[in-house]
Amino acid sequence: MSRTMSAVRTLSNYIGGSFVPPQSSQFLDDFNPATGERIARVPRSGAADVDAAVAAARNQVSASGRAELLEKIADGIEQRAEELAQLESQDTGKPVALARSVDIPRAILNFRFFAGAVRHDQTACHEMAGALNYTLRRPLGVVGLITPWNLPLYLLTWKTAPALGMGNSVVAKPSELTPLTAQALAEIIHDAGAPRGAFNLVHGLGPEAGQALVGHPGVAAISFTGGTATGAKVAASAAPQFKKLSLELGGKNPTVVFADADFEAAIAGTVRAGFLNQGQVCLCGSRVLVERKIYERFVEALVARVRSMKIGDPGDPKTELGALISPQHRDKVEGYVRLAKQEGGAVLCGGERPSLPPPVANGAFLAPTVIAGLSPSCRTATEEIFGPVVTVHPFDSEEEAVSLANGVRYGLAASVWTTDLARAHRVAGALAAGVVWVNCWLLRDLRTPFGGVKDSGVGREGGQWSLDFFSEVRNVCVALPAP
Ligand code: NAP
């Protein structure tokens, strides 16, 4: 099969070790959102394809070969790293520099990290009077992985590595908007010599292929990353079958800046947290809370920095902001900018489509946007926009900062900027978020628990938590009769 981008590629599902067309023979179009070009035809799979994949997903990787297989997959990604960065950029509209520096290295690391985790995994032994308990870890069977379009390979590998590492077989359903690197991952896993059926890929629409996977009685667990509304549907159909469920959902994350913060570091951190990947990271800090003493100076510096961001061709290594995922998504984000104005906000910069030269003249671009003057409880300031839009709000006290930060339905992440150590710990402890960063953002140690509270999700992934999710632990109690 062709390993390079031709004009329009036709993708296939990967089932039982073979690349196969969808049973419906129907395909969806995949577009490059920066140029509007059609770049691939994606299988529109349905329940029959999911059935075939679940039936094929019987071969699991033997316990002795798991870490080695994960290492080989990491090697395969590394060998195709530049091609994968290009594919990810074409599919998502993100700057290729970002794909090169974040998405693809992280995909490699996901496999290397879990190879190590699997090698070093230990289970417990509990001695008691007259008996010995020991814990066995066993695979779940077939697990379903459903992933979104914002970090396609990064998130798919984050789930695939521990799922295979714990001896499960996988059926993955990536977003149909960004199928290219998932297809390449199937090729890489194939080339790495994975047993037939250990990894299966079914492309298609969420309500069709995704729903069929979630509801399939042969699937023991679903690890889902996506929006909160979709997560609720996934939970509703998986729960009656008592599937194990991990839900990594949306966020509306606060960036909390105290007057004693390192000003320049806080500006740089706030811009990065607000606009990385065009603001399309679940962890993005889209609600910027600033202590009133420095509010005006901070907002002025923030707007100056945001105005200077280079937006345009994702292929240009100097580009900081690429295209949004689709024209439809840009419409949604623009709708929030209109709503912000109706809610009394002032758009301090951005909010409009930039004028760009070909080949990106008709791409789904939106200038990075800073909005002030909104009530922190209005819709713009509390709903997930998932685009290059931040709102800024002043606060007067630490208590008010915490209360504003916690005043949304989400609780995925937060970042706090202060040089007061005691305050940093106090505020970190009081924030209702699964991850709190202090004087940094998106600094990840893969051993740590990752996940959200409130409507941002259920369960944790990362390190031991991923191994626990993708396995079943069983206790064996052996009576030790007295001599
Ligand atoms: P989404 O619309 O919820 O879709 C996520 C995945 O679910 C896609 O593969 C989608 O397929 C599929 N899907 C849709 N309806 C389904 C159904 N009824 N049953 C099963 N699967 C279904 O999310 P998105 O717009 O792709 O991604 C953005 C969202 O993801 C944001 O809310 C963001 O915060 C969240 N996110 C969270 C994390 C985290 O770790 N917490 C990380 C990244 C992103 P289709 O693409 O075909 O609809």
What this model shows, in words?
By secondary structure, this protein is an alpha/beta fold. The chain folds into two domains: 9-249 and 456-474, Aldehyde Dehydrogenase, Chain A, domain 1, CATH 3.40.605; 254-445, Aldehyde Dehydrogenase, Chain A, domain 2. It has 15 helices and 23 strands. The protein has helices at 47-56, 66-79, 81-92, 96-120, 152-165, 180-191, 206-215, 228-238, 263-275, 292-307, 327-342, 379-382, 398-405, 421-430, 463-469, and strands at residues 9-10, 13-15, 18-20, 27-31, 38-43, 125-128, 131-139, 142-146, 169-173, 199-201, 221-225, 244-248, 253-257, 285-291, 346-349, 369-372, 389-395, 410-411, 413-417, 435-438, 453-454, 457-458, 471-479. The protein has a seven-stranded mixed β-sheet with strand order 15-16-17-14-13-19-20, sandwiched between helices. Strands 10-9-8-11-12-22 form a six-stranded mixed β-sheet, with helices on both faces. It has a three-stranded mixed β-sheet with strand order 1-5-4, with no helix packed on it. Helix 1 (47-56) packs across helix 7. The longest helix has 25 residues, at 96-120. The chain is globular. NADP nicotinamide-adenine-dinucleotide phosphate is lined by residues 146-151, 173-177, 205-207, 210-211, 214, 225-227, 230, 233-234, 248-251, 282, 384, 386, 412, 452, 457.
Key traits:
seven-stranded mixed sheet, six-stranded mixed sheet, alpha/beta, disordered N terminus, 483 residues, 2 domains, Aldehyde Dehydrogenase, Chain A, domain 1, binds NADP nicotinamide-adenine-dinucleotide phosphate, Aldehyde Dehydrogenase, Chain A, domain 2
